[in-house]
C-alpha cells in the first residue's frame, strides 16, 4: 500500500470506530481486527501504519470527530508530513480543500476536565495516554515465583504479593505457564482490589459484576478451596468466558450466576444477608483505562455519565442487601471521576447508617474520600478508585 492508501484506510477505519463510539458498539480493537480480516491485501507493515494513524487520532482528540476524514485532517494540521498523502490518487484521500472541516480541541473534552478526582492534575492526566505495562498475577495454588523467573528472567517483581511486570510485547498467552493456569494477565491495580477483598476470612463470596472473571479468579487463587465463590453478571457473553479460565486454573469452588438486567434481585434473593464479602466492580466510564482504550473518550457524554452513576448507586444498594452482619462490601471502578468514586461512597454511607468505611493498608495507592485512588502517574497502574465498607 502507498502512504496515501494507508491514510485512506485509516480514515475508513476511523469512520467505523466513530460510529461504534456514538452507538455504543464494538471496541476499536475488535473493529480493527474485522477491518483487516476483509482486507487481506494489507501486509503487516501496512496494518501497523494504518493502526498508528488511527490511534494517533484517537489519542489526540478528546471530543468525538464528525468522521474519519475530519480526524485525519485535524491531525495533518499538526503533522505536516501527513499533508502530502491527501493527494487525490486512486486509493488515497481526496486533496485538502480550503476551509475544510477538521477535528480540534484538547485531548480531554472540556466538560470532563473538572470531573476528575482532586489529585489528578495535569501530569496525572497526561499519563492517562502513556503506553500501558504488561502485568501478570501468579496463581500460588499452582506455581511459585521460580516458574516466572525461569520463563522470563527479565521479570520485575511488583510491590503486591503474586504481582509481576513483563516487558511490553512479551508473548504470554502462548507460554506454558499461562496454558497451565499458573499465571493470568492482570493489571496491578486490579490485583490491588483483590488484595483489598482478602481482608478477613470469608466463607461465601459474591462477585456481583464479574464480567469475564478476572477478579473472581484472583480471589479463588488466594482463598481456601472450601470458600464458595459466586460470579454473577447480566452479560451472558462475558460471563461465559470465565468457564475456560476456570478449567485452565483447575478452580472448582466458583459457580456462575446469570442475572437479568434491572431484575437482579430475583436471582440474588437467596443470598440476601448471607455473604461475608461482596465485590462490586461496577460498570463505569473507564477513564482509568484510557491507556488501553483511548476511544472510550468518544463514548462519553454528560448524559451517559449520569446514567452510569445512577446504575452504580443502584448496584451498591443491591449489593449491600446481600452482605451478612459483620461482612464487607468492596466497591471499585476503573474510573478517576469523583462522580463514580468518592461521591458514590459518601452518598452510600449517608443513606446507609449501618455501615462504616474500613481502612485498607496496601503498598500502593493513596487514601482519598474514604477509599484508595490508584493512577498511572503515581502507581504505574490503570486508574482505579475503590473502597472497603463493613456492615455493622
Count of discrete alpha- or pi-helical segments spanning 4 or more residues:
15
**CATH topology assignment of the largest domain:** Rossmann fold
Distance between the termini: 65 Å
CATH architecture of the largest domain: 3-Layer(aba) Sandwich
* Mean pLDDT figure: 97
Kindly summarize this structure in a few lines:
By secondary structure, the protein is an alpha/beta fold. It contains 15 helices and 13 strands.
Structural notes for this entry:
With 392 residues, the protein is of the alpha/beta class. The chain has 3 domains: 3-105; 134-185, Sun protein, domain 3 (Alpha-Beta Plaits, 2-Layer Sandwich); 188-391, Vaccinia Virus protein VP39 (Rossmann fold, 3-Layer(aba) Sandwich). The protein is 38% helix and 17% strand. Strands 5, 6, 7, 8, 9, 10, 11, 12 and 13 form a 9-stranded mixed beta sheet that branches. It has a 4-stranded antiparallel beta sheet with strand order 2-3-1-4. It is globular and about 70 Å long. The model has no long low-confidence stretch (mean pLDDT 97).
Keywords:
392 residues; Alpha-Beta Plaits; 3 domains; four-stranded antiparallel beta sheet; Rossmann fold; 38% helix; globular; alpha/beta; 17% strand; nine-stranded mixed beta sheet
Present the secondary structure layout.
Layout: H1 3-23, H2 28-37, H3 44-60, H4 68-78, H5 122-127, E1 134-138, H6 145-151, E2 156-157, E3 163-166, H7 176-179, E4 183-185, H8 188-197, E5 204-207, H9 214-222, E6 228-233, H10 236-240, H11 242-249, E7 254-258, H12 264-268, E8 275-281, H13 302-322, E9 323-333, H14 342-351, E10 355-358, E11 366-368, E12 371-374, H15 376-379, E13 384-391
Parallel strand pairs: 5-6, 5-8, 6-7, 8-9
Antiparallel strand pairs: 1-3, 1-4, 2-3, 9-13, 10-13, 11-12, 12-13
Helix pairs in contact: 1-2, 1-3, 1-4, 3-4, 8-9
